[in-house]
Request: fold
Amino acid sequence: ESRSKADEFAILRHAHAAGVPVPAPLWLEPTGSVIGRAFLLSEFCAGDADRQALFARPDNDAVLAQLGSALAQTHGAGLPAERVPETPRDRVETLQEWACDLESLPRDIIAGLDWLDAHAPEPVAPTLVHRDFRTGNFLIAGDRLVAVLDWEFAGVGDPHEDIGWFCAACWRGDNLSREAGGLGERSVFLTAYAKAGGQTAEPERVYFWEVFAHIRWALIAMQQARRAEAGEYPVWELEEAGNRVPGLARDIAEMVTGPVLPSP
Reply:
C-alpha cells in the first residue's frame, strides 16, 4: 500500500504548504540511480518518537490537544492533485484483495471482513488522510508536537479512517483504557480536533474504522510474517509482527460479535 517516493514527496509538499506540522520536504531523487532506489530528503526535526516513553507518561493532554489540531489541519488541507478519493467500500475491497493473496486466513479475520462488508458506511466528503496516524509516528519534544511522520500511506478518503486508526485498541500498547492512542482520553483528542476545524466525529462511523484498523493491521502482520519466511530484513521485526496475528484475531472476533460503541 506504500506510495512511491514521488507520490509521498508530493503529498508532503501539499501538507507542508497547508501548514500541517510535517518535516519540510527538501529534495526528491526519483530515479534510483544514486543509491539504487528512490529517496527523498526532508529537514531535520528534533524530537522523540518512542511509543513506550509516551505510554508511560502520566499526563499527555497537552500532546493530545496538539495531535487533534494537527489531524484537523490535515483533513482541512484540501485535496492533493491527481489523487483519486477512496470510499469506505473501496477500502474494504482493498483488504479483501489482500486476504485473497494470503493462505490460511484465521476464521475470525474472515468474519471481520464479512462484518466490514456488511457495515461499510456511505461516503462522506473526502479529505486528505494520513492512514498511519498513531503513537510512534510523530515527534514530541517535552509537551510539544514537533512533526507528524510517515506519510507513505497517505491518500484521499474518509477522515474518520484516521480517527479510528489512532483510537484503535491495537495501537494503545498496554494502555487499553486510554482510548486516544494509548495516551489519554478520547474526548480530549476529539474536542481539540473539533475546535481546530475538524468535523464532529460520528461514533458508529469511527467504530467501523476501528474494526477496519484491526483487520488491516492483522493482514499487514500476516504479509510481514510471509516476508520473514522469505528471508527479508529485518527478520526479527517481521516475525514479531506475525506473532501479533492471533491476538488481533481474538480482538476482531470480540468487536464484530458484540460491539460496544466507544465513549463519546
User: Anything to note?
Assistant: The mean pLDDT is 95.
